[in-house]
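Lay summary. Proteins are chains of building blocks that fold into shapes, and those shapes determine what they do. In this project we predict the shape from the chain. Here is one chain we studied, written as its sequence of building blocks.
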Amino acid sequence: LNVTNWAEYIGEDTISNFEKEYNIKVTYDYYDSEQAIDSKLLAGNTGYDVVSHTGSQIARLIPAEILQPLDKSKLGNFKHMRDDVMSQLGSQWDPGNQYIVP
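And here is the predicted shape, written in a compact code that computers can read:
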């Protein structure tokens, strides 16, 4: 599982705990600015499965067609997302909630 996120956004043992619980290897890559991750994403072929980004900024990338729609059938807890939050995401950045999960 290839993940990118802001530097210092998760606990020191989060990755190792996740790997143990789900028996999966995680490659964790961090970035320190929106420009840095946008440059990587816009260059293409990053291999990331999960990108943690700000909603307003990642929304700019949706029209560039570099993001894949979420397969919600594989997100068992998606049904627990707050309606008001999902509505805000949908109205402001991701119509139909196809790409962004808080």
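What the prediction tells us: The chain has a mean pLDDT of 91.
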